[in-house]
């Protein structure tokens, strides 16, 4: 997502009009869910995807025509063999085609803010309002900017995209940046394999270790932050919020244990520990006997970390961990949506 918004910002600065293609609603077995994007310019496809296949092929053509006419549109597709696109998915998709005028100052300001807030890793949302089925205006919200271009009920600003109608207009709002971070305690082989995978999944990663030879950009080119720490002295979990993830994989069982203690005293959403079942059993007993944690509190720790796919190598373990984080993030997102409903 960040890449396509950077592309939009750059193209607008160059003086190019664009058509942004977005999935705003889907059901059944649609190829992509709400929030998927594709960008079309005067020369055709520029980047992104809304799932491939017939719906994407058709949307490239539709977006090209809309761009030539400088208009926006909302279209509904049935993804069935005998319907609109002859697809076998069996679902439905609503696609918003938004014309982006490079001369519109609000549009340019919105995407400038999106790029800035993504870099700062703070909560921010993109809003779109479609009137008369052809005229779209854009808006933006973050805590420091407040609403730009479009106002909306704060209840719609969730960590999942929202689409609704009001007063004859269609609104679409989606998060473009969130504040959750993945704190990885330990810069060994598993962490080195894990960080690039999480980067491609839009997780913000912070790697912490006491080994200067490992905590380098050569080993962690895609990490968002690298922090040199002292596991025996520093309080390394104090910044974790209820949206954050803490992953423990230091070089020392004792350092792992101390991090477990620290992390259990935070509201962090997800806590994962790497290690053998013997180590886990021993640490669980210590946490209850020596630290006074209850069985329910210790159960917050996901150990051994990762999905059970019989992973053995660092690369395989990284995939199993990433898979579990995807699952947990989706659960978190759905819980927030359910609470807002």
From TrEMBL:
Identify the domain of life: Bacteria
Q: Which Pfam families match?
A: XdhC_C (PF13478), XdhC_CoxI (PF02625)
Start and end residues of each XdhC- CoxI domain: 13-77
In this entry, which stretches build a coiled coil?
none
* Gene3D superfamilies on file: NAD(P)-binding Rossmann-like Domain (3.40.50.720)
Every XdhC Rossmann domain range: 182-325
Spell out the protein name for this chain: XdhC family protein
């Amino acid at each position: 997502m960040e890449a396509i918004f950077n592309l939009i910002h750059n193209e607008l600065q160059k003086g190019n009009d664009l058509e942004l293609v977005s999935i705003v609603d889907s059901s059944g077995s649609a190829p992509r869910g709400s929030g998927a994007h594709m960008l079309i310019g005067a020369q055709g496809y520029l980047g992104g995807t809304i799932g491939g296949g017939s719906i994407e092929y058709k949307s490239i053509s539709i977006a090209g025509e809309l761009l030539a006419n400088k208009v926006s549109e909302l279209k509904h597709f049935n993804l069935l063999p005998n319907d609109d696109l002859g697809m076998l998915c069996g679902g439905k998709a609503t696609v918003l085609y938004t014309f982006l005028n490079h001369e519109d100052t609000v549009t340019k300001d919105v995407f400038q803010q999106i790029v800035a807030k993504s870099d700062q890793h703070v909560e921010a949302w993109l809003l779109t309002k479609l009137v008369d089925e052809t005229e779209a205006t854009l808006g933006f919200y973050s805590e420091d900017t407040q609403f730009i271009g479009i106002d909306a009920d704060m209840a719609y600003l969730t960590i999942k995209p929202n689409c609704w109608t009001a007063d004859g207009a269609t609104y679409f709002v989606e998060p473009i940046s969130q504040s959750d971070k993945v704190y990885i305690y330990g810069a060994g082989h598993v962490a080195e394999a894990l960080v690039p995978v999480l980067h491609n999944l839009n997780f913000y990663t912070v790697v912490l270790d006491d080994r200067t030879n490992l905590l380098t950009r050569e080993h962690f080119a895609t990490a968002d932050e690298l922090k040199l720490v002292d596991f025996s002295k520093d309080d390394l979990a104090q910044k974790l919020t209820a949206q954050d993830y803490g992953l423990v994989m230091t070089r020392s069982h004792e350092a792992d244990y101390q991090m477990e203690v620290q992390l259990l005293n935070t509201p962090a959403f997800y806590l994962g520990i790497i290690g053998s079942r013997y180590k886990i059993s021993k640490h669980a007993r210590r946490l209850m006997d020596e630290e006074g944690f209850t069985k329910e509190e210790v159960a917050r720790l996901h150990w051994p970390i990762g999905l059970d796919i019989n992973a053995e190598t660092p690369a395989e373990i990284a995939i199993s961990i990433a898979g579990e984080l995807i699952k947990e993030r989706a659960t978190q997102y759905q819980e927030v949506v359910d609470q807002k409903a």
